[in-house]
Amino acid sequence: MTTPPRLDVQNLTRAFGGAPVVDAVSFQVEAGQVACLLGPSGCGKSTTLRIIAGVDIQDSGRILVDGQMICDATTRVPPERRAIGLMFQDFALFPHLPVRENVAFGLPGGFKANGARVADLLDRVHMGRHIDSYPHELSGGEQQRVALARALAPRPRVLLMDEPFSGLDERLRDGIRDETLALLKEEGTAVLLVTHEPHEAMRMADQILLMRRGRIVQQGAPYNLYNAPVDRQAAGFFSDINVLTGRVQGALTDTPFGQFLTPGMPDGAEVDIVIRPQHLKLDFDRAGQGPAPTAENGTAARALVTRARYLGRESLVEFRTDQGGITLHATVPGVFLPPAGTTMWLMLRRDRVFVFPRG
Ligand code: ADP
Ligand code: MG
């Protein structure tokens, strides 16, 4: 017999005033796995989380934890008996309780009966020396660590986190994300983390659930979402993108970079050819008029630099193609600031290009 998934969400639907906000959402999270529910503000992420937590009720669909029914049309296990932990953006520590009592809050017998577990968790979030402090004596990052310890103290089977890092100083976030991830992995709980930041999902997730207007439009490992997006919007969610548009003629589409194979698309269909800025390669037009350099798997287009900016880790160069006057952006590692008006050749790696029907 195979083990059921830790968290199994099946066909969850929820409408407010007739408008579906969560629309046939299904996914699974295994123990020890971090899944990120990723999508723009208002797409239904928090509503999904609230239903799983039991503070809102679905119109249809079911939720199982370790194969046990938590919530369907007839069963409704109350929130406090779901063994599901919660951590929200405002950490909501109890201001009148010291750190040790905050962390012990969900444990039968409080700190007295659970001193070792509380001390161990606080040590692991590097807050051991603050065990007797009060929340107002702590920085935002420190409060966040205490909140994490509190959420993990009862050993929840599933931990739900709603934008848990968004209240923190930008510079602190990556460090705290990494520490949090390490602790979550040690504890081995299943984690469902809600975020609208692709960077956060890429950094934290084993599995990304990309959500749009109440639906999950793509799910998989970060690598798959970045390198095999389902549509133009999904591609554009993870980075800036360049889009060449064209019309299919005999399974081929003409672009300034030559013809693209667009198999399976009917004649006359409009397509978007999508390239991330780091996948445009640049070469100077040394000979002025020389023949286009041919890159392996690619064809070159001549273009004029219209603007170049230094962004710190990389430079962003804006071009206008000779053919078609299309604006394109390329990123180059380090400092690369050609003056406006410079003519260059742009090449793209065909294996890095996505072709979608016009959306
Ligand atoms: P997200 O967390 O992805 O930003 P939410 O799940 O909070 O999105 O909200 C999704 C949509 O549902 C929003 O348009 C929001 O206004 C609406 N919504 C959420 N809760 C309620 C509610 N209790 N009553 C009416 N509309 C709601
Ligand atoms: Mg939300």
Q: Could you explain the architecture of this structure?
A:
- The protein has helices at residues 45-53, 99-104, 110-124, 140-152, 170-187, 198-204, 222-227, 232-238; strands spanning 7-16, 19-29, 34-38, 60-65, 68-71, 84-87, 158-162, 190-195, 207-212, 215-220, 242-249, 252-255, 258-261, 270-275, 280-284, 300-310, 314-321, 327-333, 343-348, 354-357.
- The mean pLDDT is 92.
- The protein has 359 residues and is of the alpha+beta class.
- Helix 4 (140-152) packs parallel to helix 5 (170-187).
- The strands form 4 sheets. Strands 6-7-8-3-9-10 form a 6-stranded mixed sheet, with helices on both faces. A 5-stranded antiparallel sheet has the order 13-12-11-14-20, with no helix packed on it.
- It is globular and about 75 Å long.
- The chain folds into 2 domains: 7-236, Rossmann fold, CATH 3.40.50; 240-357, Nucleic acid-binding proteins (OB fold (Dihydrolipoamide Acetyltransferase, E2P), Beta Barrel), CATH 2.40.50.
- The site of magnesium ion has 2 residues, from helix 1.
